[in-house]
Amino acid sequence: MRADRNDPPTPLLRRSAAALWCLTAAVWLGAGCLFPSALAELPARAARFVPPGTVAASAHGSAAVPETASVTAPAMGAVPAALPGPAEATAPAAPRSDTPPAADPRFAPSFPDRLAYCQRFGVVVCESDFPVSNIEAFETEILDLQTDLIDYLGVPRPNEKIGLCLFARRESYAAFLREVFPQAPTNRPALYIKDRGPGILFLQVDERLIVNLRHEMTHAILNASLRYVPIWLDEGLAKYFETPRGDRATENPFLDPVADRASALLVPIPSLARLEKMTKMEQIGPDQYRDAWAWTHFLIHYSPQTQRLLGRYLYSLRPENRVGMTAARAAEIQKSTPMTALLKEEMPDYKRAYKAHFEQWSRKSHARKLSSR
Questions:
Q1: In which domain, by residue range, is 268 found?
Q2: What is 90-139 written as a DSSP string?
Q3: 163: helix, coil or strand?
Q4: pTM for the whole thing?
Q5: 362 and 254 in one domain?
Q6: Which of residues 160, 195, 225 is at a domain's end?
Q7: Which of 117, 261, 322, 350 has the most Cβ atoms closer than 10 angstroms to its Cβ?
Q8: Among candidates 108, 142, 297, 153, which has minimal Cα distance to 212?
Q9: Which residues contact 236 (CB under 8 A, 6 or more apart)?
């Protein structure tokens, strides 16, 4: 006899359904006892299973930046070969918003009367004298960098916008700076200015546009997110992230010379303590840029332990921990808990680990180059 969908279920059917439900529950509970970790990971796996192009919803609505940003230091997990993306997202990815920047006063353009084009990419408000859609992968580079710094390394999501002013010609770039910021140098292809309000990055289009964008945008995101960033880490991360996303671990020009120095018998490893003492940009030169990149690479790629140390260190620089302090006072406090202190406490043999790290990564780099021939 066929039961119609509109007929009420018979007692026999109800008892059968209840028995089936109980059996299913017992199987799941048994699986949970035998494999508790697998059962516990189900919500996290479901959260990570997002179709390409889908944006996770924010608890604060559609705005890319909540009124009060608060994240916890991430558990970074296994070390990726080339930092392809977030290992364990601790905050929703910056949305690709089609909302006009003026719709939210926090993202209003800074120069609406001087620059004709304006577009928002996550927390970045880009103003330009030409359509940026003409530049291949421009939006992707900006959004990927926000994802890598915020979701992967655990940098807090900025509480303010980041301005980006882009110029098609060097002449228009220099003329704009002379008019708006007369004291700013005009002979640099990229310039980041931050005083008391949101920082603004100025760029001119040239053959190094995307490299300069990655480098300077790293500075912009760090300084919009953190109360104080030590020079060595600011420049180390900028040098690390200026390389294309898939090449950061093995294709940076610093890798081979750093590995050669680490393998040399009579060459000491670079002093992180000396780098931590730098307080002015005049103190950093080619050797310091190289060494800052090297320590950053070591912290990101050596092990989950060094990743967690870097996450803890960045977490300590959050603005919530520096409320009411000047940058100079924050710098003085940070000197009492430098990265070297964390390494000595948790990795007493970190110098030996540094040498082994670059010997290993040098072999990986050479093997990759040989396989690509």
A1: 227-373
A2: SSPPPP---S-GGGSGGG--S-TTT-SEEEEETTEEEEESS-GGGSTTHH
A3: strand
A4: 0.70
A5: yes
A6: 225
A7: 350
A8: 142
A9: 292, 293, 294, 295, 296
Q: Domain with 217 in it: what CATH number?
A: 3.40.30.160
Among candidate residues 162, 196, 195, 154, the one with its CA nearest the CA of residue 69: 154
Q: How many CA atoms lie within 13 A of 178 on its CB side?
A: 8
- 15 CB-contact burial (10 Å; exposed 0-12 / middle 13-18 / buried 19+): exposed
Sign of CA dihedral 121, 216, 218, 333: negative
What is residue 58's DSSP assignment?
A: B
- How far is it, in rounded angstroms, from Cα 190 to Cα 203? 5
**pLDDT tens, residue by residue, 226-279:** 878 899 999 999 999 999 998 998 889 999 999 999 988 888 999 999 999 998
Of the candidates 362, 367, 81, 366, which has an alpha carbon nearest to the alpha carbon of residue 248? 81
CA distance 108 to 100: 9
pLDDT of 84 reads: 34
